[in-house]
Design a protein that fits this description.
Chain lengths: 132, 279, 155
């Protein structure tokens, strides 16, 4: 149930901490995003830029106020699977992606839902420490 | 009927040949120059026979079931599906009509059992003619061909339907009694606050002023809700068991537990028009 | 004329007074067993041959799964799932248990249909010393009573 103004946690190392949803892509305005759906977000809180970070991760850092795309990886709203299992997480979380649907960051911090595999976000699945 | 049909067809074919001749000539022709096709007005005959010809019909009758409740069903792919249990008992052919005599091909099926002392004598005679027990519920199923009429007293079992096929289920919705417009028609209602007085769930305006000076027919208003026949189309058959007399259909069915439901082959998938068959 | 009509009517009455032939109904199926009960039993016979899952949920069984237990669900085709039971829903074949666990510090809840054919068995990993006086433990979410990071092996 992610829609306009929803605040989500960012679980990658792109530098963003908390983002706000400003658009759910490819859905009618009355609909909301679930796991695996793409959204447009504004970065509300970001980690401070430090000189220690170098390489690709430094060039991909995002700042407060940046607008980027993201994919929802966990929702508080229950997800029902085909086998009848219902799964629910304690928070709403996303991973920032670029225009080609590849993750901006190089790491994914915590657990993600299995539904991402159906939507071809295999990179995120392989980076995640645990898939439920 | 068929004569008129042929005439209509021939006039159309004449026009199309004229068109083809025009197309075959190598000149470039603007679309506006193409002559009109003289087509006859659509023939809609209102007699019963031509109505029957236009109706979408099935080749065989359906069954009468009793809704017993819902359960879940695990299929071969490991999916959990909701399923409604429909009991098929005492389904027998009680009466048939044929097109030459009654103008309709139909099979009347009875289901359930009623004590003879609760049945009128005229109905007892009806059941006696078919040599079947007194039934609780009767229903007519119209079919395509006279050849497919079944002999009286034929028993129909749950294996009439095959697993994986689609059916329509017709039953009576639970009565909701007198209902307001919000529940009956999904109106928005009024404000909960901001000074709203006694109009939180009201319908609002019912029309204009001096013109037309009346409420137009069909205006959605409060009234009786439910307690009417409803058809649910294209439900999949998940399981059927003739020995134990039940079928499971995917999803839900209107009506309360213990109510009679009519189950037929899915009309939109398997139905045919006689008018198309006769062409 | 009217006399004739009356006669005809009375005559008809005598004919109607004859006993009507009534045919017997078809034989009862399932020896008169309730259909829903029959379906429940046949589903149990199909999806729970050993009766272990039924026993795990049965109220008559003292060793049944209760809220506050820590349970591991073992699947045929995927990794086992462990968690603390928040709730047991008894609804025939549609019975479910609600498991809560923390993975990397994040609460994850799964409502699992117990009789699903891909579930091999349910293992009770740990039982509490004293059960709480409730059957639904929704209130432990995000409180000091909340579950820790549970794993299947810990006993």
């Amino acid at each position: 149930m992610i829609y306009l103004k929803t605040l989500l946690k960012v679980i990658d190392n792109s530098g963003a901490e908390i983002v706000e949803c400003i658009k759910v892509l490819r859905k009618s305005p009355m609909n909301c995003a679930h796991v695996g759906d793409k959204i447009v977000v504004v970065v509300q809180e970001a980690k401070p830029l430090s000189s220690q970070i170098t390489g690709t991760s430094a060039s991909n850092r995002v700042k407060r106020g940046d607008i980027c795309r993201a994919v929802v990886v966990r929702t508080k709203y229950p997800i029902q699977r085909d086998d009848g299992t219902v799964i629910r997480f304690d928070d709403n979380a996303c991973v920032l992606i670029n225009q080609k649907d590849e993750p901006i960051g190089t790491r994914v911090g915590s657990v993600v839902a299995r539904e991402l595999r159906k939507k071809n976000f295999n990179k995120i699945i392989s980076l995640a420490p645990r898939v439920v | 009927m068929s004569f008129i049909f042929k005439r209509a067809q021939s006039s159309i074919s004449n026009a199309t040949t004229a068109l083809n001749e025009l197309k075959s000539s190598k000149q470039l022709i603007s679309p506006s120059v193409i002559p009109y096709i003289n087509s006859n007005a659509p023939i809609t005959s209102r007699n019963n026979e031509s109505k029957r010809q236009r109706r979408r019909l099935l080749e065989r009758p359906g069954l009468i079931g009793i809704k017993r409740g819902m359960t879940c069903f695990f299929d071969n792919q490991g999916r959990r599906l909701p399923a409604t249990v429909l009991e098929i008992i005492q389904n027998e052919v009680t009466f048939t009509r044929n097109v030459t005599k009654e103008g309709i091909n139909s099979i009347q099926i009875g289901a359930g059992y009623q004590k003879p002392q609760n049945v009128t004598r005229s109905m007892l005679g009806h059941f006696r003619n078919a040599k079947v027990s007194p039934k609780q519920y009767l229903s007519d199923f119209e079919i395509l061909n006279e050849d497919n009429l079944l002999p009286l007293g034929t028993e129909l079992k749950a294996d009439h339907f095959k697993i994986g096929q689609f059916v329509d289920v017709i039953s009576v919705i639970k009565g909701k009694g007198m209902a307001g417009v919000m529940k009956r028609w999904g109106f928005g209602g009024g404000n909960a606050s901001h000074g709203a007085s006694k109009s939180h769930r009201s319908a609002g305006s019912t029309g204009q002023n001096t013109t037309p000076a009346r409420v137009l027919p069909g205006k959605k208003m409060a009234g009786r809700l439910g307690n009417e026949r409803n058809t649910i189309f294209n439900l999949e058959i998940l399981d059927c068991n003739a020995d134990n007399g039940y079928i499971l259909v995917k999803g839900c069915v209107s009506g309360s537990k213990g109510s009679f439901v009519e189950i037929r082959d899915a009309l939109k998938k398997y139905g045919k028009h006689l008018i198309n068959l006769n062409k | 004329m009217s006399l004739n009509l009356v006669r005809a009517f009375s005559c008809a009455r005598t004919v109607f007074a004859k006993k009507m032939v009534v045919y017997a109904p078809l034989p009862n199926l399932r020896n008169g067993q309730n259909l829903m009960e029959h379906i429940k039993q046949s589903q149990y016979a199909k999806f729970d041959k050993s009766g272990a899952k039924q026993a795990a949920l049965s109220l008559h069984n003292k060793e049944r799964i209760r809220a506050d237990d820590i349970v591991t669900v073992v699947y045929k085709n995927q990794k086992p799932v462990t968690g603390q039971v928040l709730m047991v829903k008894r609804a025939g074949l549609n019975s479910t248990i609600l498991l809560r666990n923390k993975i990397t510090g994040l609460g994850v809840e799964m409502n699992i249909p117990v009789f699903h054919p891909n579930i091999i068995r349910l293992d009770i990993v740990r039982r509490p010393a004293n059960y709480k006086p409730r059957n639904r433990h929704y209130y432990i979410r995000n409180s000091r009573l909340d579950v820790g990071e549970l794993s299947g092996g810990s006993k």
